[in-house]
Amino acid sequence: MAPPVEISGAAAEAAAAVEEGAVVEEAEAAVEEAAAAAAAAEEVAATAADKGGGGDVAVRGDRPISTVLIVIAMQTEALPLVNKFRLTEDTGQSLFPKGVPWVRYHGKYKDLYINLVWPGKDSVLGVDSVGTVSASLVTYASVQAFKPDLIINAGTAGGFKAKGACVGDVYIASDVAFHDRRIPIPVFDLYGIGARPTFSTPNLLKELNLKLGKLSTGDSLDMSPQDEAAIQANDATIKDMEGAAVAYVANLLSVPAIFIKAVTDIVDGEKPTAEEFLQNLIAVTAALDHAVTKVIDFVSGKFLSDL
């Protein structure tokens, strides 16, 4: 066996330096690679946003929209669309939890598979299950069950004449927020308001010539002085009882959502809100039906980035 080779101190130091240099070079290369990957990811995200991604939800890939979820609060608002799109009600085993009153209609229309859901009737009082709680629950369960590419929350709303709204106007919501979740603690106050932009649809707006306005949501049909101050702070043109709740769930589950609202009553007008709402509900529902049909026709065969 050959005797071990002795390495001088200078040689050992040189070898260590070479080894250390190689490690540093490898580390620097890894850092550069990570930076390049991050830059590429940012570029992809920016490109997706430029192609129509808006609000809190990015465009999901480059593929046609195939499944749409329509969330509606009232049966009166839902049935014209059920008839228009020739949807079938679930009568057998439901994908929803046992015992809930939620109703699903579904079917194929052009290139789209449509699931229309409404929260059903209250089991005790027999009225439509309106409001944020039912809307958020049925939206969450429907997204989990049907995996939609797009959510459409359609319904009636109150409008403000001070912002230019008239009975029968149909709006696409540009932003949503709550006006009755008051938490006067720093940061919690912003959480309570829950303001967020909606999914951007510039081509749809231009093609269909719909109005654009901010939507404020609360669980009361009337408007208290505190609600009014919050709605004004939200710069809202329309108010409803479901939109911001649907938007919260859509954002949570990363599904793009658009909001189509037809004005039944003028909140800052002379007539009592409940009276005007009931008086105009049927006629305005026809305007809503027409607008939603135009939106579905526009969406059919398109990519999210085309909206």
Describe the structure.
This protein starts with 8 loop residues before the first helix and ends in an 8-residue tail after the last helix. The model is unreliable at 1-24 and 34-54 (pLDDT under 50). The longest helix has 42 residues, at 9-50. The protein is α/β, with parallel strands linked by helices. Helices cover 41% and strands 20% of the residues. The chain has a 5-stranded mixed barrel. One of its GO terms (biological process) is L-methionine salvage from methylthioadenosine. This is 5'-methylthioadenosine/S-adenosylhomocysteine nucleosidase 1. GO terms for molecular function: methylthioadenosine nucleosidase activity.
Fourth CATH level, the homologous superfamily of the largest domain: Nucleoside phosphorylase domain
CATH architecture of the largest domain: 3-Layer(aba) Sandwich
Alpha carbon gyration radius? 27 Å
- Kindly give the count of domains: 2
State which percent range the strand residues make up: 15-25%
Anisotropy-based shape: globular
Profile the largest sheet.
5 strands, mixed, barrel
Q: What percentage of residues falls in helices of 4 or more residues? A: 40-55%
CATH class of the largest domain: Alpha Beta
Mean pLDDT: 86
Count of DSSP strands: 10
Domain Nucleoside phosphorylase: 68-296
Organism: Ananas comosus (Pineapple)
InterPro entries: MTAN, Nucleoside_phosphorylase_d, Nucleoside_phosphorylase_sf
GO molecular function: methylthioadenosine nucleosidase activity
